[in-house]
Structures are given as C-alpha cells and as structure tokens.
C-alpha cells in the first residue's frame, strides 16, 4: 500500500495508528532477524505515541499515524545515534533532527533507527559492531549503503517510508540494490541539523519509499529552510507530490547522458535503462543526447572534498576510538588526513568549473537519465567477506581493501558527479539482472526536483517495476 | 630563490608516522602503510585536477557558500 493511501485511510478512520504500529512491529519481529535492518526499535514508545494520536483532537497532518523509520545517523530524542559504530553506542540524542521533527509534526510515528554503513562512510552497510544488513531480494547479498537499512526496511514492506542520507550516493546505492525508490535532494533543500555529518558541503537527507509519488510526499514534509541550519537555502519548496503524480511525458524534455551507458558497466543494465528511455519516448517525451563536460572527473573532485571534510569531522573519533572503528572506515579517515589544503582548494575551484559546465549542458531540460549504478548488489560470503564482481573476465585486485576501493570508484562514477554540484537525483527500479533489482536515475537540475519527479512518476505510471516485492515480504 | 618544491606525491612512511604521532593516534596506525597504497593512486590524480584550471590562480575561485 502506498503512503498516500495509507495516510488517507488513517485520517478517515478506516485504519488506526495503534493497529498500524502494532502490525509494523510484528513485521520487524518476523523479518528483521533475517535482515538486520534495524539498530534500535522504539516499540513501547511508538505504541504510546499512536495511542496518544488516537486520543487527541489535533488536526490530522499528511502523515497522521503513518509508521516510519530513520537511518541511525539522524537524531531521535532519547535514542542513541550510533552511526552503526561501536564508538558512538552511548551517543544519546537530546532532540530530534529537523527532518525527524518535521515528520513527527506531520503525524508520523518513528518506529526505530536503521542500519547504515559505519558513520555513513561506505557503500555496503557491513558494520562490524552492528552486523551487516541483508538484501531482502537475496539475504546473501549486500543491501548497499550507506542507507542500507532504510532501503531494506521499505523493500521488505516493514514500513512504507524511511529517511536516509546521501553524501556521495548513500540513498541511490541501496535503493538500487534493494529495488525501491529514493531521492537525493538538492544540497541545501532539506535540513541536515541533527544529522551525524560526513561531508558538510554535500551531505543531504532524503526519503526512501516504493514510488516517486510517496518519496515526493515525504519530501514535501521535510523540505524547506531551517533557521537552525545555515546550509539550507531560502528557496521555495515545491509541490513535489503533485509533480510526481501529474507529469505528462509529452511535456518532458529528457537528456540521455550517453557516456554513462558505456565503459565499465554491466551491458544488461545499460540495455534495461535504454529500455526506460524507449518507454518514455514512446509515451511522447522528447529525448536528446547530452554530454556533461568533465563528468568523468567529477567523482574524484567530490571524493577530494569528502576525504578532507570527513577526516576533519571525525578526527576526535579517530584519536579516541581508533580500535573501535572498522578497518575500512578507519583507512578512509586516515587517508583524509593527507589531502593537502592545496588539493582541497583546487577541488573547490574545479567544482565551480564543473557546475558551470553542467548547467550549460543541461540547459532547460527537465532532467537527465542514466543508470543509477553500473552493477548489481555484490554477494557476501558467510564469513562476511564481500565478493565483488567486476564483470566477465575482470579479476578483482588482490586484497579486500583494494577490491572495495575499486568497487567504490565504480559506483562513484555514477553517483558522485551530482553530489558534487548539489543536483537532485530520483532513483527508481527498472528491471532485474540475475534476479536482483536494477535502477534508473532521473537527475534534476539544481533545485529541479520537480522535473526529475515528473519523469520518474510518469515512468512509474507506465511500468510496474516499483511494485515488485521480494518473496520474503510475503 | 629556493628551488620550487616538488609536486605533492605520495607521503613517505616517515611522514605518515609523523602525522600519526601528531594526531595522537594509536600505535596500530602503522597500518597507515596500507593507506599509502591508496594515496599513491589518489593524490597524483588529484594533482592532475589543477591542469583543468587557468594558470596562476586566474578565473573563478571557489563558489560562495551555498552557491556551488
């Protein structure tokens, strides 16, 4: 059931918040032992909040009584924000993150906190301290990350909507691997106050749900300027749900980023996304090829900024909790100590150059289209080792760290350019490869969420990939 | 006039250990030598970014806050 339908039935009294929360808690009890999507569950508190809603007479907001869950890098008052790190087990939040507060003000009930790659600094969600999240389509594969629990909980139908965060791809990667829809919003659209930061200049908070329309509904609730977060810009938030619901493909002009359909990606995945283009063209959309200048360099620029900023943010953790950090995250934080200030300044200047080039290339297009990722979710061996697949005939580099680094670089080619320039991306399911879901990305211009949502919504009205469920969801 | 310093390259192991000491890191930070392998690829690639920009610092600087 969609969030919009569930919320409507709750508001009208056809369903009860207490019953919905109880049912969701039942699904957590039944499914989470297989998935490990949750780090903490607010069972009694959520039931009490649902009962209070039912007993109250306050106006019923757009999410009145809807159970949700949030990534465990977002503060929920009274609950630890662990970032799936042993180093932060005792980090009890004193108040809600702004995005969480806005969900609650709209009537949503927060069931719990969701698993993540440690400190949101990796693409897998395989924290040693809290255990890896398992992909609902195949628990022997990774969910992706870092918002792995947020994507898995939606894919398994435990909740209809969650919040994740995306710095270099952390909403897009797990939503693609788990077959659900997600939005990385424009940088500065949604407040990051109360979020465990990773890279100030590109961090975002965004929704994950089944459909673009449901993501848009959540975005309508959380978007907008926050006086408590100077990084949010005073831009008018749009009516995103209406955009997702009513986009007419005949009025869409979509650019196809041809270079990202070539090179180091699974050809079956490229073919599936070409089929998305064909579906939209057949429905009347205007499709044009587009070359995004320096798109192949943008990932490196973004990573240069992120390495420096993440190490500055977590320097104290590195000093005081060295042994408690996972080896992969520790390695990245250590590496960030060696990014020279001159390299950081150069990266800032190149970002301006790339942003100017992207703006000129995109012109007045409603959105761009590309594969969200070049590959499907990797398998994880029973002992926890990730079996990276670099395509037919390509041997992984020797050593787990080198293989993971190459894997990250492959993903970053697709996700990091848009993070660098702060553009929004809607990732939506568009097929299967080897039984695992794959996704298409609709990239909007800066603060052009509506254009990307119109295209994603139109695609989802023409197809049913976003409605497919893993057998585990029942 | 002193010679121009060499372009930034991979830090030597001694430099890495010096940074570890400065940061007060755990002695196990000798694993930084694994980090060095990463930096050996990453830092030269970052250096190449400068070639994309006008020489001598001409042209636009970093975007003002929030406008990138």
Features:
heterodimer; A: 474 residues; alpha+beta; eleven-stranded mixed β-sheet; two-stranded antiparallel ribbon; globular; B: 68 residues; mainly alpha; 0% strand
What is the third-level CATH name, the topology of chain A? Amidase signature (AS) enzymes
Largest interface: A-B, 45 and 33 residues
SS elements, strand count of chain B: 0
β-strand amount of chain B: under 5%
The average pLDDT score of chain A comes to 95
Order of helices and strands of chain B: HH
| Number of structurally distinct domains of chain A | 1
End-to-end separation of chain B in angstroms reads 38 Å
Helix count of chain B equals: 2
Q: Sum up the overall morphology of chain B in one term.
A: elongated
Strand content of chain A: 15-25%
Strand order within the widest beta sheet of chain A: 1-3-2-8-10-9-16-17-13-11-12
Radius of gyration of chain A, CA atoms, in whole angstroms: 20 Å
Oligomerization status of the protein chains: heterodimer
Q: How many strands, which pairing sense, and closed or not: the largest β-sheet of chain B?
A: none
Which structural class is indicated by helix and strand composition of chain A?
A: alpha+beta
